[in-house]
Amino acid sequence: MLADLLQNTLDGLAAGASYALIAVGFTLIFGVLRRANLSYGPAIMLGSYAAAFAFQNYGLGLIALAGICVFASVLAGAYVERLCFAPHRKGSAIAAMVASFALWMQLEEVAMLVMPKHLYAFPPLNQGGPLDFAGFTVRVEALVMLGAATAVCALVWWILYRTRFGLATRAVIESSRAAELSGISVPRVYIGVFALASAIGGLAGFLISASFEQVTPMLGMWSTLKGLLAMMLGGLGSLPGAVVGALALGLLEAHSQWYLGPQLRDLIAFLLLFVLLAIGPRWMTPSNG
Amino acid sequence: MDDYLIGVLTNIGLFGFMALSAYLLLLAGEMSFGQQAFFGVGAYSGGMLTAMLGWPLPAAALAAMAMGALAALIVALPTLRLRGLYFAMATLAAAEMARIGFELLHWQVVVAGEPTGPDGTQGFRGIRWVFENGVEPGTYLAIIWTLLAMVVGLFIAMERSRLGAALRGVGEDPELSASLGLNVIRVKLAVAAAAGALAALGGVLYAHHNTYIEPRNFDIMLGVHSLAYALIGGLGTVFGPLLGVLVDIGLLEGSRVFQGYRMIVFGGLVALLLMVRPRGLLDEGTVQWIKRRFS
Amino acid sequence: MSALLQIKDLVTAYGKIEALKGVSLDVQEGSITCLLGPNGAGKTTLMMTVAGILKPKAGAIAFAGHEISEQQAHAIVAAGIALVPENRLMFPNMTVVENLQAGAYQRRDREIGADVDKLLVRFPRLKDRAEQNAGTLSGGEQQMLAVARALMSRPKLLLMDEPSLGLAPLVVEEIFRIITELHRDGTTIFLVEQNAHMALKVAGHFYLMEQGKVTFSGDPGSLAEDEVIKRAYLGSAKL
Fold first, then answer.
1. Other CB atoms within 10 A of residue C152 CB
2. B126 and B116 Cβ atoms separated by less than 8 Å
3. Per the CB < 8 Å rule, is B90 touching A278?
4. Among residues A154, A245, C13, C170, which is most buried (max CB within 10 A)?
5. Distance CA A37, CA B233 (A)
6. Does B227 contact A at CB distance below 8 Å?
């Protein structure tokens, strides 16, 4: 019993780490632009598809694939930023969001046209098998995921609190008007934040695809749902909250799945979100957008 | 009229109900990512009543609308005070719960020797009332469009009435409306129920057109599409959302020109259009202009 | 000699409503110029337009001979204009020092750190709170911080929108003492004020603005002070 509990906890944390990467990207964009980017998941998927394509046709190694994933996601993110967010910076938040779901549909179809199969192979992160540690099975992928999530969080912290760009970003998060008056170029901060968020998303996509050794067209929708769930569970707009929310989601899912199966697992996650939204006073403040 | 055209026009009508459902909530100032749940509730309940219990379609449709309204109230009551992205996420969560609910729904009875009823992820086949009662596709199309026209008529009547003004007031400035004596909560609940019934009506008609439904039909993409139709068509008039549906299903899918890359075109079109018309094609300003030109 | 800041026939609108209906005024280099007028006259709108936050519908703004009405806010800071906004607009969860560093964002030189130190010396109350979050400061301290932040960009023209708003009289005096010091050190100051009495004591020239237009231009003393005060609070109402 205890062994199961611990095993599920380990697995849950690993899954949570992957959600954390996605949620951090979502939250960076929401925290700075105050708008939800619904094309974030599809941009991640395009990154993984580009890597899968490269793998299939050129047989490249993991590092190169990771680079392609990140690069393609950043490119897709830049496209979304220019088309959906830059034009509406001082305008309607809803228009930005609708445009982002229009591009969501567009990007999904692009991926499916270029690579029409339902499944594409992706090289594994770890050639060897899982590690056996005091009776628990620890997948190397899980350790890599946790390590990556920790490293990314540290990197984001360092950028925000130890760089000039980070200062500008925090300023825009607090008050974009005050930032403008201080001489900070808000459009440039948006571009930088988008690039950072997309890069993190690309990395997440790479790690997830390599962990499962496959890429499917569902990756876009899946990333969007997990990212949004984690972000909302952790408190909209808070980076530490996104990480906590993501880990909590991973743990919740792992334990629910063990006792109740996969469908109820998802149901419980949505139910939790619904209940939290319905009751928590924190959540009742109107969002901007 | 050839079968293909009838099919396209039928789809426009069916998704028109969804677009109008999203539109109604938008008028009241709320953005819902979850109307597909009520579309599904209408489809499943209507289908179950006709295929499993032998009800005639008109009665089943009314019952389905009631179920849709009820489901909408269940979602709306706890989420009344939420706004913006928080409300949208709550509706998303509710809709996904509904979809998973459909995946878990296994209930079959034997009808004429065949097991009939929803079978979880395998879907629900045999919703054949329309065919068994000799309703031709052309006739069914006429029925759908007549109902849609009636709904549009109701919208137009509402928009001219005090109810319409109250609705827009609540949508634009709830605090002000409340201070003017409007019971904002009651308005929002009424709107939610009506929108749920509307989506459910679309759902029951959809189920009987397709004869087969599965939980996947009622996923987020349907909800997001409907919202997009309303927002791109414009919120100035009830014809806005219908225009949105027309552009996507009518123009793009129907014309078959963009086979395989319809979403690429539609998605790009929407994003570009929003740059020049952030409030949609038939937004309030355009509608006023049109009214002045023709008065 | 042409003025440092020349505004000609400026029109700024919010949608269909014109808040500025053709404003023309000059700010001479090295002066303290004051803009007075009742609430709703458009003074803040004017400040925001000069600072580049709002885009004018028509008219021209020339700064040191260059047209700036089309430029973005950060470029205007780089050009040498800094605005101390109404309501101060702090970064509440950033420290005092970080707020100051943000003000220097357009600068690429190495003296930013030295400037931070100098300003902390000049504003001793800020020095006490250097590592505290700006949100924990009192109203007066926040106003000092807003002024200091604007000074970090080494502006040639300092715009100030109601610096005395909501502050205790002693603090108001301190603010105006700082304004006088800055003027003496060579900064041109364009000041919007409700406190006409204090403003007229320091200003070399003043304008009255009502309902989106300039209605009076003159030196302190060219109009009786009580007349000025009346118009500043109530406007010259046509009965």
1. 25
2. yes
3. yes
4. A245
5. 21
6. yes
Output the domain CATH number for residue C168.
Answer: 3.40.50.300
Instruction: Please give, rounded to a whole number of angstroms, the shortest distance from the CA of A73 to a CA of chain B.
Output: 18
In 3D space, the residue among A195, A185, A203 whose CA is nearest the CA of residue A67 turns out to be A203
Q: Which residue is closest to C78 within chain A, CA to CA?
A: A183
Chains interfacing with B (3 or more CB pairs < 8 Å): A
pLDDT value at position B277? 86
User: One-letter amino acid identity for A173?
Assistant: I
In angstroms, the Cα distances linking C95 to A153, A269, C92, C129 are 22, 38, 8, 8
Domain, as residue range, for C117: 5-234
Q: How far is A171 from chain C (nearest CA, A)?
A: 6
Beta bridge partners, C66, equal: C63
Cα B90 from Cα B79, distance rounded (Å): 7
Contact at 8 Å (CB) between B29 and B172?
Answer: yes
C-beta of residue B215 within 8 angstroms of C-beta of residue B264? no
The predicted complex's ipTM stands at 0.89
Residues spanned by the domain of B54: 3-219
In a domain, C184, yes or no: yes
Task: Give domain limits for chain A.
Answer: 20-221
Closest CB to B96 among A106, A270, A289: A270
What token pair was written down for A256? 């629910």
Residue C239: inside a domain, yes or no?
A: no
Using the beta-carbon criterion (under 8 Å), do A183 and C106 form an inter-chain contact? yes
CA-closest candidate to residue C101, choices C160, C145, C165, C62: C145
Counting Cα atoms < 13 Å in the Cβ hemisphere of A276 gives: 20
Please name the chains neighbouring A, where neighbouring means 3+ C-beta pairs under 8 angstroms: B, C
Q: Judge whether residue B34 has pLDDT over 60.
A: yes
8 Å CB contact of C102 and A182: yes
Search chain C and give the residue with CA nearest A168. C102
Cα dihedral across residues B281, B286, B287, B292: positive or negative = negative
* Residue contact A110–B264, C-beta within 8 A: yes
Count of pairs with CB atoms under 8 A, one residue in A, one in B: 133
Count of domains in chain C?
1
How many domains are contained in chain B?
1
Mutate to test the interface with A, among C50, C53, C74 (most CBs of A within 10 A): C74
First to last CA, chain C: 40
Distance to chain C for A172, nearest Cα, Å: 9
Answer whether B270 touches A (CB < 8 Å): yes
**The residue count for chain A:** 289
Q: What is the pTM of this model?
A: 0.88
Give me the helices (H) in chain C, please.
43-51, 73-79, 96-103, 112-122, 124-128, 139-151, 169-184, 196-202, 225-234
- Please, are residues B173 and B31 in contact by the beta-carbon 8 Å criterion? no
Q: Where are the alpha helices (DSSP H) in chain A?
A: 2-33, 40-58, 62-80, 93-114, 140-162, 164-174, 176-181, 186-212, 219-233, 239-260, 262-279
Structure tokens at B232: 């791109």
Assess C229–A contact: CB distance below 8 Å, yes or no. no
Per the CB < 8 Å rule, is A109 touching B278? no
- Residues A37-58 pLDDT 10s: 999 999 999 999 999 988 888 8
Indicate whether B200 belongs to any domain. Answer: yes
Give the residue among C71, C7, C94, C6 at the shortest CA–CA distance from C42: C7
Establish if B275 belongs to a structural domain.
no
Length of chain B measured in residues: 295
Structure tokens at C51: 């600072």
In C, which residues are within 8 Å of A179 by CB distance?
A: 91, 102
Strand order through the sheet with C5-14: C17-27, C5-14, C58-63, C66-67
Kindly list the residues from chain B whose CB atom is less than 8 angstroms away from the CB atom of residue A101: 224, 227-228
> Per-residue pLDDT for A31 more than 70?
yes
Do C and B have ≥3 inter-chain CB pairs under 8 A? no
CB atoms inside a 10 Å sphere around CB B286: 17
The answer to the question of residue B245 being in a domain is no
